[in-house]
Write a structure and sequence with these properties.
Blueprint: H1 5-15, H2 28-32, H3 39-66, H4 68-71, H5 81-84, H6 89-107, H7 111-129, H8 137-152, H9 163-184, H10 201-224, H11 226-232, H12 235-254, H13 262-268, H14 270-283
Helix pairs in contact: 3-6, 3-7, 7-8, 8-9, 9-10, 10-12, 12-14
Length: about 290
C-alpha cells in the first residue's frame, strides 16, 4: 500500500483512539486517593494509562485482522480499515508489533503492570477468537478488562484500592457490558453477532437492572464508608444522586438504541457529560 496521508489516517483509525477513553479507569485510584499531588505517582499512573492505550489498540488491530472477512459483509463494520481494504494486513500487523513493543517499554520495571497487561491481552484474544460467542462469559471478560485497568492504576503503582470501589468497578463494568448487548439487539437480526441468540430481550433487561442496582448499592456503601468519610468528608455522599441520574439516563439512551460503542455514546450525550462535570465539581468542591 503506497504511503500517503490517507494511509496514515487509516492506520490511526485502525487503533481506535476514541476507545482510549475506557482507559480512564486507570486514574480511579489516583483520583479517589487524592494522591495527584505526588508527582511520582502521577507519572506512574500516566505510564500505566499509556501502556493500556497501546494494549487496547493492539487488541483492536488483531481482532479486526482476525474478523476482516466477516466484517466486510457487515453493514457497519465493513467500513473498518482492514475490512474495507484501506489498510492491508502487513502494515496492520507491523503497527500491532510496534504497539506491543511500546506497551512493554512503558511497563518495563513494573512486573505487576506487565502481568496485568499480559492478562488483558490474553483475555481479549480469547474473547475475540472464541469466548465472545459464549453468553455471560463474553460480558464477564469485558468487565474483567475494565477491572484490570482499575488495578493497574492502584495495585500496580502502590495505591491501596478500596474494597467498595473495586466492587463498584466490577458491577458498573458488567452493567455497561450488558447495556452494550442491549444496544446491539436493536440491529437487524442478520447483522447481529452470534452470541445475541443467547440473549433474549427480557434476560438482558434483567441483567441490566441487576447490575445497575448492584452498582448503586456498592457506590452508596463506598460513599458512606468510614474510610471515605475520613478522606473525603460528606462530598461523596452528595455525588450519589448524580450517579443515580447518570445510570438512569444511560439506561434510557440504551433503550433508544444507543450504547453499542460506550466511549462514543458517553461523549455524545450532553446530559451525561453534564452529570460527569457536576460529579467532578462536587468531588473537588473543597478546593474552591
Amino acid at each position: 500500500m503506497p504511503f500517503s496521508f490517507s494511509s496514515l489516517i487509516a492506520l490511526v483509525r485502525l487503533m481506535r483512539p476514541h476507545q482510549w477513553a475506557k482507559n480512564v479507569f486507570v486514574f480511579a485510584g489516583l483520583v479517589f486517593s487524592q494522591s495527584w499531588e505526588v508527582l511520582a505517582l502521577d507519572l506512574s499512573v500516566l505510564r500505566a494509562f499509556a501502556a493500556f492505550c497501546c494494549a487496547s489498540s493492539l487488541v483492536y488491530i488483531l481482532n479486526d485482522w482476525h474478523d476482516r472477512a466477516s466484517d466486510a459483509l457487515h453493514p457497519v463494520k465493513r467500513k473498518r480499515p482492514l475490512a474495507s481494504g484501506a489498510v492491508t494486513a502487513v502494515p496492520a500487523l507491523l503497527l500491532a508489533a510496534a504497539l506491543l513493543a511500546a506497551g512493554v517499554a512503558l511497563a518495563a520495571g513494573n512486573p505487576t503492570l506487565l502481568q496485568l497487561l499480559a492478562l488483558y491481552v490474553a483475555l481479549n484474544m480469547a474473547y475475540s477468537w472464541r469466548l465472545k460467542q459464549v453468553p455471560v462469559v463474553d460480558v464477564a471478560i469485558i468487565a474483567t478488562g475494565f477491572m484490570l485497568r482499575l488495578l493497574a492504576g492502584t495495585v500496580a503503582v502502590g495505591i491501596p484500592p478500596s474494597r467498595w470501589l473495586l466492587l463498584t468497578g466490577i458491577f458498573i463494568t458488567l452493567y455497561l457490558g450488558f447495556c452494550k448487548r442491549k444496544a446491539e439487539s436493536f440491529q437487524e437480526e442478520s447483522s447481529q453477532r452470534a452470541v445475541m441468540a443467547g440473549y433474549p430481550p427480557a434476560l438482558i433487561d434483567t441483567f441490566i437492572a441487576t447490575t445497575m442496582t448492584a452498582t448503586l448499592t456498592t457506590y452508596s456503601l463506598f460513599a458512606t464508608s468510614l474510610d471515605a468519610q475520613l478522606q473525603h468528608g460528606q462530598r461523596l455522599l452528595y455525588t450519589v444522586p448524580v450517579v443515580v441520574f447518570a445510570l438512569l439516563r444511560y439506561t434510557y439512551q440504551v433503550h433508544r438504541g444507543q450504547g453499542e460503542d460506550v466511549a462514543r455514546d458517553l461523549l455524545r450525550d450532553g446530559w451525561l457529560l453534564g452529570a460527569g462535570a457536576l460529579w467532578l465539581f462536587i468531588f473537588l468542591s473543597h478546593r474552591f
